Amino acid sequence: MLLNAPRLVIKIGSSLLVSPRGAVRRAWLANLAADLAALVAQGQQPIIVSSGAIALGARRLKLARGGRATLEDAQAAAATGQIALARAWAEALGAKGLVAAQLLLTLDDLDDRRRYLNAATTLARLLALGVVPVVNENDSVATEEIRFGDNDRLAARVALAAGGQAVLLLSDVAGLYDRPPEEAGALLIPMVADIDRLDARLGTSGAMGTGGMAAKLAAARLATEAGVALAIVSGREDHPLARFAATGRGTLFSPAADARPARKAWLAAGRTAKGQFTADAGAIAALRQGKSLLPAGVTRVHGKFARGDLVVILDERGTPVARGLSEYDAGDATRIAGQRSAAVAAILGHAPRAALVHRNHMALL
Questions:
Q1: For a pLDDT cut of 90, what percent of the chain falls above it?
Q2: What tens digit of pLDDT does each residue of 171-220 get?
Q3: What are the distances in angstroms from CA 98 to CA 85, 95, 148, 193, 253?
């Protein structure tokens, strides 16, 4: 069962943790902390991904639109509210004999390989020490271009970094429905084995959340393609983890049978690519057969990037096909694009690397 996973990431949405008046729902949080203490007592290692900083900060600063009127307001609200959020978690977990640690991340932290590994190492050490990490997006410094935008996908990315086996998204709805759940006759979908067959418009979003069901489906795709199970479960009731353990009510997304290795999963999940290669049909077909991207198959090079930066490979219609690490910087890549391997050495004046993107450093999308 999902709740028996040795390492479990649990995402908490703003509308569950923060009341409409902008205060922490302390009784609900105390019940959740009791559920987490029960998991720890069983030898499990929970990781919390918690929203709520902007909602809490907006109340204290008396900002309009819940602190989301402008990016600057959201950053100020997050900086103010994160103190209150961390205190609430530390007090709730401390009351159950647990130690909390705060970890703030931006998208760039998990897209940069070195910082990704640093975050993974920190999480591993905290868990080994018996600490409960509480993770949130670092909204006080995030910008429109590098924001996760929702903590559903952040939870999936954290699970990949931490080597987790499961993700539990506590939501203001009970799971994924076959139509908007407020409509008469809406049916809960208990199991999803193939996300590609789902209608992306299913479900609805919470009143205070920014993710919505589309973000939850994106999180489920990230997790399951890496071999991590994910469930969407109602968090409205007291003791939501205990209730889920007793009833199993929610929507479970099964991990893919052909899950990606950890490095491939990291490459596929990355979003802040520094450049793009457009490849011809022959090169795209070769990629799908497990080949590397050679210079001869590249028709255009976009962006400013260095060797080792993350790039996206597009087909001639502009559809992303793969992500990988470039073996060349943008200048050299532009010089050799479309050239046969035999001509590359003469163009660059040195012995070239065999591929623009090697298959070992690439993940198909």
A1: 63
A2: 988 998 887 777 888 889 999 988 877 754 454 434 344 447 888 888 99
A3: 16, 7, 28, 35, 30
Q: Tell me the residue ranges of DSSP E strands in 121-165.
A: 132-137
Q: How many Å apart are CA 345 and CA 336, to the nearest integer?
A: 9
CB atoms within 10 A of CB 338: 14
Q: Give the number of other Cβ atoms within 10 Å of residue 258's Cβ.
A: 7
What are phi and psi for residue 233, nearest 5 degrees? Answer: -140, 150
Residue 41, classed as helix, strand or coil, is helix
Question: In the block, which residue shows the tokens 């109340």?
Answer: 59
Position 18 pLDDT exceeds 80: yes
Which residues have CB under 8 Å from 140's CB, separation 6+?
A: 75, 76, 78, 79, 82
Helix (H) or strand (E) holding 37: helix 26-41
Listing from the earlier edge strand, what are the strands of the sheet with 298-303? Answer: 298-303, 275-279, 310-314, 320-325, 362-364
pLDDT in tens, 290-342: 999 999 999 999 999 999 889 999 999 999 999 999 999 999 999 999 998 88
Q: What digits encode the pLDDT tens for the residues 129-164?
A: 999 999 998 877 766 544 555 789 899 999 999 999
Q: What pLDDT, on a 0 to 100 scale, did the predictor assign at position 146?
A: 43
Cα distances (angstroms) measured from residue 88 to each of 19, 28, 127, 281: 14, 12, 20, 54
Q: What are the residues whose beta carbons fall under 8 Å from the beta carbon of 103, sequence distance 6 or more?
A: 119, 122, 123, 126, 133, 134, 135, 136
Q: Is 183 helix (H, G, I), strand (E, B) or coil?
A: coil
